[in-house]
Amino acid sequence: xxxxxxxxxxxxxxxxxxxxxxxxxxxxxxxxxxxxxxxxxxxxxxxxxxxxxxxxxxxxxxxxxxxxxxxxxxxxxxxxxxxxxxxxxxxxxxxxxxxxxxxxxxxxxxxxxxxxxxxxxxxxxxxxxxxxxxxxxxxxxxxxxxxxxxxxxxxxxxxxxxxxxxxxxxxxxxxxxxxxxxxxxxxxxxxxxxxxxxxxxxxxxxxxxxxxxxxxxxxxxxxxxxxxxxxxxxxxxxxxxxxxxxxxxxxxxxxxxxxxxxxxxxxxxxxxxxxxxxxxxxxxxxxxxxx
Length: 291
What we know:
Layout (H helix, E strand, L loop, with lengths): L1 H5 L2 E3 L6 H22 L3 H22 L1 H4 L6 H22 L4 H11 L3 H4 L12 E3 L12 H32 L10 H5 L3 E11 L7 E7 L2 E7 L7 H4 L3 E5 L5 E3 L2 E3 L2 E2 L1 E5 L2 E4 L13
Antiparallel strand pairs: 1-2, 3-4, 3-6, 4-5, 6-9, 7-8, 10-11
Helix pairs in contact: 2-3, 2-5, 3-5, 5-6
């Protein structure tokens, strides 16, 4: 409206109305509360105050109805004052938001045609301190987000991340296989004692959908039931494992692998470069500690 009716040049005309006082009062309250919150490093509280001013400015638009004023040539001075008041509120918001959104703040100041003096913190405390606004061509500062596209983008990024992680893991595994003589770092007896090795009975087993190498093992560890996802599908069929007893690291932090919450890790041996064998303990009772 500033561009359409005033060629982008907006100044205070002095044609005021009592409704202006509520916007000015909110401005003063916002600046005071924002300053106090920032001094106490209560940043969330500070920016809550900023959006109170934004909300009041929106209400001010409904109250003054500038679109209606624009239809009456005699009301043009009042229209320009309304637009000036709104520009002042927006200027204040831009300055207060600068610590959190510096780029957006700079864009708003540029759109309002603010001088360095009008952008300074010292100027924010007095409503109406700006001599004039020279509004530029408007642009959308916060484009509407297409939720479906964003979710699709995030899913693709997650798939890419997983693929890169799997690739890195395979590379590390191959490197370890090529250098079997490389000794692992030494651990103390206290560090080793942190491992809780238990006997677990495999009560059910099935392939993990969408994963060529993973099997989902349902285990009985004493009175507890849990699942483990393990990349042993290349060497074992589910039918070979049900009813067998294995050794697991029972206190390993759970991890979600291809949608399966894996609570533990089973013990296995690299029998050769192309073969992996589980360590069975069929004569032992599920839940018993391995030492």
